[in-house]
Automatic annotation (TrEMBL):
Monomer. It comes from Alsobacter metallidurans. Substrate binds at D22, L23, N24, R37, H60, F61, G62, R63, R118, R151. It comes from the Bacteria. This is Phosphoglycerate kinase.
Length: 397
């Protein structure tokens, strides 16, 4: 594991600290509906401010095409202030005179949020001139936005080329948690990959079979693997054009000594609806009108048994259509068992990506996992084994 420069070695006192954070929070009717991302960056903001730094927050919001006040960060500044319990100033631009005036007026310990970096198309192009304009308002750059680290944008990567670069506390925690799970893990490592489709997780499966000892496949994507083994899957979600791909993943796994665990039974229904009439069948007895919506009780027991052998768990994707009761049963049972083993000190558990956080929250298990990543795309790219530019730039060379 390569080391990073962290806040431990940063001298921030009386310095202008450009702090890249993820404030791309969900909004409903002009109000922040989930402040998890804001909560996550508070420790870094507080630490820099308490050490006498001037905290200049940089963030993107939505996908504006140029300056578009529908995507302004202004209302978010107020919510950050509320959660921080301190005033947070706001500047109408992240570069130019408005940004400079706001930053020049700061005293040590002050916090200012600059307007959406994506109001400038140069942000996503990592344009060197734009990077320079951003850098004019900072003495050093701290990145605390792991969730944006799969993008080499001006504020997520470019600034690291022109200013002394440090990992914020959230970035540090995330990278350390992920490194413990896949780079230098305690073995056996068990990965759970579920969710809807194989097609969206091909690279992820390809990487994991080479790195983990046991790969548990669940969710809709397991149907494609069952079909690849010649089993009938009725009306279940199944990607018929990927049967060969599924077979080749199984072959690669064999060559890499990775044990693949597929469901042995399933909860099936005739419609994709909460509380639809359902029954448990063996995966060898799925009828033509059956739709597999969850793993069955025998599969739950199998997965629990595998979990008991594992020292490390990496999880992405639910075991079934967890939004529809009772097809959340498999996901809930396995998530709770993983949480229990983690709490008992027997398992290091890391989860993230897409719907996984809501599935684990739904199961009431997220709190007890070792680490739950709120980063969607970045977490998945990391699972795919890709270097993340916004992380690579922070490594000590
Ligand atoms: P993903 O974003 O790929 O992790 O997929 C998550 C989605 O997969 C959730 O919305 C689940 O409802 C869905 N899903 C999981 N298992 C099944 C299944 N057996 N049939 C249909 N959809 C499923």
């Amino acid at each position: 594991m390569t080391a990073f420069r962290t806040l431990d070695s940063a001298d921030v006192s009386n310095k202008r600290v450009l702090l890249r954070v993820d404030l791309n929070v969900p909004m409903e009717n002009g109000k922040v509906s989930d402040a998890t991302r804001i909560e996550r960056v508070l420790p870094t903001i507080r630490e820099i401010a308490d050490k006498g730094g001037k905290v200049v927050l940089l963030a993107h919001f939505g996908r504006p095409k140029g300056r578009d006040l529908k995507e302004t960060l202004r209302p978010v500044a107020a919510v950050v202030a509320e959660h921080l319990g301190r005033p947070v100033g706001f500047a109408e631009d992240c570069v130019g005179p408005a940004a400079k005036a706001a930053v020049d007026a700061m005293k040590p310990g002050d916090v200012v949020l600059l307007e959406n970096t994506r109001f400038h198309p140069e942000e996503e192009k990592n344009d060197p001139v734009f990077v320079k304009s951003l850098a004019e308002n900072g003495d050093l750059w701290v990145s605390d936005a792991f969730s944006a680290a799969h993008r080499a944008h001006a504020s997520t990567e470019g600034l690291g080329h022109v200013l002394p670069a440090y990992a914020g506390r959230t970035m540090q925690a995330e990278v350390e948690a992920l490194a413990h799970a896949l780079e230098a893990p305690k073995r056996p490592v068990l990965a759970v990959v579920g969710g809807a489709k194989v097609s969206s997780k091909l690279e992820l499966l390809g990487n994991l079979v080479k790195k983990v000892d046991i790969l548990v496949i669940g969710g809709g994507m397991a149907n494609t693997f069952l079909a690849a083994q010649g089993k009938a899957v009725g009306k279940s979600l199944c990607e018929k054009d990927l049967l060969d791909t599924a077979r080749s993943i199984l072959e690669t796994a064999k060559g890499a000594n990775c044990e693949i665990v597929l469901p042995v039974d399933a909860t099936v229904a005739s419609e994709f609806k909460a509380h639809a009439a359902n029954k448990v069948v063996s995966v060898d007895a799925v009828g033509p009108d059956d739709m597999i919506l969850d793993i069955g009780p025998a599969s739950i027991e199998t997965v629990k048994g595998k979990l008991a052998q594992a020292k490390t768990l990496v999880w992405n994707g639910p075991f079934g259509a967890f939004e529809l009761e009772p097809f959340d049963t498999g996901t809930n049972a396995v998530a709770r068992e993983a949480a229990r083993l983690t709490k008992a000190g027997q398992l290091l558990s890391v989860a993230g990506g897409g719907d996984t956080v809501s599935a684990l929250n739904h199961a009431g298990a997220a709190e007890d996992f070792s680490y739950v990543s709120t980063a969607g795309g970045a977490f998945l790219e990391w699972l795919e084994g890709k270097p993340l530019p916004g992380v690579e730039i922070l490594r000590l060379r």
